[in-house]
Amino acid sequence: MKLNTDRLNAFFQVGIERNFCKAADVLCITQSALSQRVLKLEQELGTNLLIRNPDGIALTESGKLLFDYVQDLEIREQEALNRVTGQSAMANGIIRIGAFSSVMRSVVMPSLIPLINSPHQLKAEFLSKELRELPALLLSGEVDFILTYDPIKDPSIESCIVGYETLVHIRNRNAEFRQSPPCFLDHDVHDMTTYDFFAEQGMQDLEFDRSFYDDVYGLIDGVKMGFGEAVASKHMVVEGDLIEIVHHKNKVQLAIVLSYVKNRYVSDLQKRVIEHLRDNMPQYL
User: Which residue of 9, 162, 191, 205 shows the fewest CB atoms closer than 10 Å?
Assistant: First the structure.
């Protein structure tokens, strides 16, 4: 059986965008034409590839297998073209990386500057997400790599440690902003960083209130403005007139783990990115 290329491309784009309207715009066809191509592909294969629900589009197990297949085909095709035309393995390549906010802008993006600013027209797409959201992005194929604190417990995922991040307790230097009990600023209700930090200090019974900020930059700004205290990444904290680090007996370091799907084809470009992140990210933050 030889599958129709237009139908495969339609399905693949929907798998990337998780939205028929956006996928149709990318392919420059009508949403009706896109839907027909995907439907005919499903009929041809005799199985459902997509789950349509109020929250958006998801891939079935069969859809995930086909998505990986099409993605591998695209990568292999680009590599073959590069070799035939004598271009670099990085020529016209796209890498997609997902990471949590404290390392994305301050570490991951700067470490890739030499690759992105090379003469090979390399493009990069960065998604800054909460830690709990990153594994799904990787498994769905929306990103090629993710950086998290822990290896993903999935036999299809390859993980390696590329560095370590140190956490510190910070507060505003102005004593008039101190609250009792203290208020700690976290990302959201699911963020356990503050609890885990004080558990490492043997202070798991510490009582405190919590407020929530969207990302680590807003969290640090909140401390500067006296809205509360926080546990934050040391490499992002600049002690000065507004912020001080409260020292505790135990140093808290978390491994930064790079993960990718090992049963997908890993292109020469992706291998270069893995090597570059291993070699160029600061070992200790």
Answer: 205
Please tell me whether residues 266 and 158 are part of one structural domain: yes
Summarised one tens digit per residue, pLDDT across range 213-260 is 877 888 899 999 999 999 999 988 888 879 999 999 999 999 999 988
C-beta separation of 285 from 164 below 8 A: yes
Tell me the mean pLDDT in the region 49-56.
80
Place of tokens 């929250």: 55
Same domain, 145 and 275: yes
Q: What is the pTM of this model?
A: 0.64
Radius of gyration of the chain (CA): 22
Looking at 26, 57, 87, which one is the last position of a domain?
87
- Dihedral angle sign, alpha carbons of residues 161, 95, 83, 115: negative
* Omega of the bond leading into 181 within 30 degrees of 0 (cis): yes
Give the per-residue pLDDT at 185.
Answer: 94
Whether 283 has a pLDDT exceeding 70, the answer reads no
In a domain, 285, yes or no: no
Task: With cut-offs at 50, 70 and 90, classify the pLDDT of residue 266.
Answer: low
In this structure, what token pair is assigned to residue 164? 């370590």
Flag whether pLDDT at 89 surpasses 70.
Answer: no
Residues 119 and 40 in one domain: no
Same domain, 109 and 216: no
Range of the domain at 113: 89-162+258-280
Tokens of 127: 């998604």
pLDDT at position 142, please?
78
Residues 38 and 69 in one domain: yes
**Is the distance from CB of 123 to CB of 284 less than 8 angstroms?**
no
CB atoms within 10 A of CB 268: 16
Residue 55 sits in a domain whose CATH number is 1.10.10.10
Kindly state the tokens that stand for 205: 């019974």
Cα separation, 285 vs 281, in Å, equals: 9
Domain count, the chain: 3
